[in-house]
Amino acid sequence: MQPKKQHVLLLIWLFLCSSTAVDLELVAGVTIILSSNIFFYFRELPTPFRLNSPGLQTDLDNKMFGQHIASSIIFKAVNGFMSNTNSNKPLVLSLHGWTGTGKNVMSRLIAESIYTNGMKSRFVHLFTATLHFPHRHMIDTYKSQLQQWVRGNVTNCELSMFIFDEMDKMHPGLIDSIKPYLDYHDNLDGVSYGKSIFIFLSNAGGDIITNTALEFRKAGKYREEITLKDLEETLSLSVFNNQNGGFFHTGLIDKNLVDFFVPFLPLEYEHVVQCAMAEMRARNLEPNHDVANMVARDMVYSPKPEKLFSSTGCKTVQHKLNFYR
Questions:
Q1: What architecture does CATH give domain 53-264?
Q2: What are the tens digits of pLDDT across the range 195-222?
Q3: N or C terminus of the chain with fewer C-beta within 10 Å?
Q4: What's this model's pTM, rounded to 2 decimal places?
Q5: Which residues are known binding-site members?
């Protein structure tokens, strides 16, 4: 059922139920039409600026491993944005790092802290570059479609979330089609984008992040000493100049519309163990350190000769755990 039709039917139903001269057959008819949709509607009614801040913090503490920079930035950025009732610009986050370091998990945690149905919410929209925008010769069509999709969904709900995965595989120039929506405007053609959230996920910049982590390790420093300042500028320049990525010479970076470039550090052996333990808890299994260590030892580590970082992060932990249980 379309949101606008559902909304009209809901209003009719509420009016009839509150009327002193109730036509019971009419009420019953409208109720049947709404059926299960009415309860879904109440659950998913847009409720701007309702963030489960304690829940987000707990999830970051218990489900994000080895990502002190990303966890701190995300919590402060999302919390600050959701508490600002006068925002005239959407929150724009760009998450970078090797595969399996937690970028998709972080997006899910943000969605779950805001929307009742998390990633399944009708207000959360996920785009994957190789799936939704596969053909370079159709880029003009994709630009038009993307503008319509974003504008239409924000019109329906100001507090919409858009997640763009595989930005390193997106055709250059495509993402600039939504640049006006990410800029500072009270409204644009009658639509306000200042309460929406845009999240970009990319493997681009992973090598820079890994090299920085390796340099700190060689200097005898803890990875927790790495700060955003150590990475953000080189990270943004790297993706801006990457000719094969979706951020190549994009106006989003040139006009400083990306609020935070969030680095995800490569995961070490201990973090893979933590991932395995968390997966066991998620399955309601008794956490077993021996099993977690077997899973961690089964990973491939790089670079040579140090072999410090899991090449796939925690991405294959779920399936490897099936083998050892």
A1: 3-Layer(aba) Sandwich (3.40)
A2: 999 999 999 999 999 999 999 999 999 9
A3: C
A4: 0.85
A5: 97-104
